[in-house]
Design a protein that fits this description.
single chain, 686 residues, alpha/beta, 6-stranded mixed sheet, 34% helix, globular, Cobaltochelatase
């Protein structure tokens, strides 16, 4: 087993280390979600924490890590009366992104339950993580139903497994830590709220600190055991401090003044529900215990707000998490007591100033940030000033990025769109757009199981077993069931698709009001893709060529950012845009063959530039039609005189055309039927 990197050797990242330590002191805080770019020690810090969590006493032989002092009376391996205990290190269990539901919560052997009446249960990762740490790397890429199961277990402290009337329940209390790179997609706000704390991490821009990171990492890679030994003293100090804080935690007093500040802060930032108040209260209590105090002070409430509120105040999927610290300080001052005692300068183990580690880089404990030293965070109201828009060049002046280019315009107000879907029945990743065979959804039939049985179709199983009862010698009331009788339920739900936007950014689209409306429509479709758990990509074309502005990704926010800065101008190389989209879809089909594409072409249908642009555009569209790619053309043509070129393009693509007005959810009915009908008509004609 690889030697983990020491927790105290992590350079910087004070918020991250403090949030992890607070959860180690009080798992009731509810876990940590770590958001940040790649290469910022997210996984390193989480894995290093496992060496600091105190060891646990468990019932010998219990697969569910019951505490011998207070065993779970409903433990599937129980009862545990007079069973000897054993001491072992707290486990850190990692949940892979591709894990199945049975791997997470455990599996019941349905065959033995039906045929033998035996409740045989194989524990999952939730049972392994009980009284330890459950780490989910790239939690934003985990299927939604797995995240729901995971967070429900974390909230209730127990896991429930239900299979066709047979149920098992076991304790599942763990420190939940998730890491994610926002560039790869966001979690839904409902799921963000279930994480107790969140921290934003980024690589330092200070050369000295970056040098220290490299020095320590190289030293660790050259001699892991020796490097860990050099930090053993600091690791022991932190481990002892966690134990001391846990013992002190029940004695910490959360007074009415601190509770008032917590409630006022949550109300001031308009967070939904009451979970934020509860998490802030638990976090502030853990902060006081970590500092060696029995009273919660205003500085604890402030730090708790900085950790517990940023991810709860988002109002739409494209809002960046953050907190207005000036507003926070004003709220705390307004509702703070006048006679609060000064905080003790030192914790139980001496000054908490970060110290100097064995490598002289100051890699000790993270300081508890107060009002003067609070971490700087992105803020929606007081963030960095936007650079002024460049003025449009006068007529005849040279353009910096191509002749005729105009500055980017802001997107219009987004609206709720009609649902566009891919016809047929797919088998892609779970989502909310097109019909598909999925593990969850309504039961549509039964089939013989391939491998382990997971979803029993009871009626079909009984129907298969019934004709053979006399031959099998049935003598009692029970049904004699064999392996060959079992039937797996087939279910139909919804899948997520790849929505590839092909956006015309040429001069014919460049009128300021018109392009703003077009961007508003695309932004609306992006919001719809976010809610339906799609992957998205963005291809733009103007001037003489097309470019992939955003390769297919789960980060709808990245697509919205690219759209906002999209310049316009020049000719309309429609054929180049369609050919580039065809290549993007071809490559993506090799990477993810089960995910079906939906191409949304946003254009007025004009094709200019080069020889025979209209004919070339028609041929490029025919490539998509020949492969049966579902397509929708959003017709952006406006004015009294319309040429209907977008409709002709839709015909070549084998798709349908809709205007910007028709795209709105309240405009017309039957848009999905139109999309599917056009596809079916094209296939019959072929």
């Amino acid at each position: 087993m690889a030697t983990p990197y020491p927790f105290t050797a992590v350079v910087g990242q004070d918020d991250l280390r403090l949030a992890l330590l607070l959860n180690a002191v009080s798992p009731a805080v509810g876990g940590v979600l770590v958001r940040g770019e790649k290469g910022t020690a997210k996984s390193t810090a989480v894995r290093a924490l496992s060496a600091l969590v105190p060891a646990v006493d468990v019932v010998a032989g219990c697969r569910f890590s019951c505490d011998p002092a207070a065993p779970d009376p409903q433990c599937p391996d129980g009862p545990h009366a007079d069973t000897p205990g054993a001491r072992r290190a707290a486990r850190m269990v990692e949940l892979p992104v591709g894990a199945s539901e049975d791997r997470l919560v455990g599996a019941l052997d349905i065959e033995r339950a039906l045929a033998e009446g035996v409740k045989a249960f194989e524990p999952g990762l939730l049972a392994d993580a009980h009284r330890g740490i459950l780490y989910v790397d790239e939690v934003n890429l985990l299927h939604d139903h797995l995240v729901d199961l995971l967070l429900d277990a974390a909230a209730m402290g127990a896991s429930y497994v239900e299979r066709e009337g047979v149920s098992v329940r076991h304790a599942a209390r763990f420190l939940l830590v998730g890491t994610m790179n926002p560039e790869e997609g966001e979690l839904r706000p409902q799921l963000l709220d279930r994480f107790g704390l969140t921290v934003e991490v980024a690589a330092s821009r200070e050369p000295a600190q970056r040098v220290e990171v490299v020095k320590r990492r190289l030293a660790y890679d050259d001699d892991p055991e020796g490097f860990v030994a050099r930090w053993a003293g600091e690791e022991d100090d932190v481990r002892a401090r966690i134990v001391a804080a846990r013992k002190l935690l029940p004695q910490v007093r959360l007074g009415d003044g601190a509770l008032t500040q917590i409630a006022a802060t949550c109300a001031a930032f308009e967070v939904d529900g009451m979970r934020a108040d509860i998490v802030m209260a638990r976090t502030a209590t853990a902060l006081a215990a970590w500092a060696g105090r029995t009273d919660v002070l205003a500085q604890d409430v402030r730090q708790a707000a900085l950790l517990a509120l940023p991810h709860r105040r988002r109002r739409n999927p494209f809002d960046a998490p953050g907190l207005d610290e000036d507003k926070l300080d004003e709220t705390l001052d307004e509702f703070g007591p006048d006679d609060e005692p000064d905080p003790e300068p030192d914790g139980p183990d001496g000054p908490d100033d970060g110290g100097s580690g064995p490598d002289g880089g100051g890699g000790g404990l993270p300081p508890q940030a107060g009002p003067e030293q609070g971490p700087e965070r992105p803020d929606g109201a007081d963030g960095p000033e936007e650079a002024p828009e460049p003025e449009e060049a006068p007529a005849g002046a040279p353009a910096s990025a191509g002749a005729g280019e105009q500055r980017a315009v802001s997107a219009g107000e987004p609206f709720r769109t009609k649902m566009l879907s891919v016809p047929g029945l797919g088998e892609g990743a779970a989502g909310r757009r097109s019909r598909a065979r999925t593990a969850h959804g309504r039961t549509t039939g039964a089939t013989r199981p391939r491998g382990a049985l997971t979803k029993l179709h009871l009626a079909a199983t009984v129907h298969a077993a019934a004709p053979h009862q006399r031959a099998r010698g049935r003598s009692g009331p029970g049904l004699v069931v064999r392996r060959d009788d079992l039937r797996q339920a087939t279910r139909e739900g919804r899948e997520g698709n790849l929505v590839l936007f092909v956006v015309d950014a040429s001069g014919s689209m460049a009128a300021r009001q018109r392009m703003g409306a077009v961007k508003g429509a695309v932004l609306s479709l992006l919001l719809d893709a976010y809610q339906r758990r799609d992957k998205v990509g963005l291809v733009t074309f103007r001037g003489t060529a097309a470019e992939v502005a955003l390769p297919p990704t789960s980060s709808v926010e990245a697509a919205a950012s690219r759209l906002e800065t999209l310049p316009t101008g020049g000719r309309t190389p429609l054929a180049a845009g369609l050919l580039t989209a065809h290549e993007v879809l071809r490559v993506e089909r090799l990477r993810d063959p089960a995910r079906r594409p939906l191409m949304v072409v946003v254009t007025d249908g004009r094709a200019t530039g080069g020889p025979e642009p209209v004919r070339l555009a028609g041929r490029a569209a025919g490539l998509h039609a020949a492969e049966g790619i579902a397509s929708v053309v959003v017709d952006c043509e406006s004015g009294m005189v319309r040429l209907g070129l977008a409709g002709q393009l839709a015909t070549h693509l084998g798709g349908t055309a809709v205007t910007l007005d028709e795209l709105r959810a309240d405009a017309i009915a039957g848009l999905v039927k139109d999309v599917q009908g056009s596809q079916q008509h094209t296939r019959r004609a072929a």
